[in-house]
Amino acid sequence: MVVRIRLARFGRRHEPFYNIVVAQARSARDSKPLEVIGTYNPKPHKPTGLSDEEAKTARMYKAVALDQSRAKYWLGVGAQPSDGVWNLLAM
């Protein structure tokens, strides 16, 4: 039983949103995962709660939320990260 950590796409057309999931390697992209360990929003956006002056100079960022303890657990038991998740983990 090969387990992978990969991205499952959600959201609308032209507005992708991904869950970082642990799933069987041969299951479909959007099938029910074993566990959801994080989220990834690839559309750049500015931080909220800034003044007008700060908002003009603020850098855009892509939001990544990951439960690091669960990711370490799954990697420790042999789960293989996909290329996209590998890049996110390297950040």
How are the elements arranged and paired?
Elements: E1 3-12, E2 15-24, E3 35-45, H1 52-57, E4 61-66, H2 68-76, E5 80-81, H3 83-89
Parallel strand pairs: 1-5
Antiparallel strand pairs: 1-2, 2-3, 3-4
Q: What structural class do you assign from the helix and strand content? A: alpha+beta
Instruction: Using the 3D structure, state the CATH architecture.
Output: 2-Layer Sandwich
The neighbouring-strand order within the major sheet is 4-3-2-1-5
Q: Report the sheet with the most strands, covering strand number, pairing sense and barrel closure.
A: 5 strands, mixed
Gross geometry: elongated
> If you consult CATH, what is the topology?
S16 Ribosomal Protein, Chain: A
Strand content: 35-45%
Mean pLDDT: 88
What's the oligomerization state? Answer: single chain
Family: Belongs to the bacterial ribosomal protein bS16 family.
InterPro entries: Ribosomal_bS16 (IPR000307), Ribosomal_bS16_CS (IPR020592), Ribosomal_bS16_dom_sf (IPR023803)
GO biological process, one term: mitochondrial translation
GO molecular function: structural constituent of ribosome
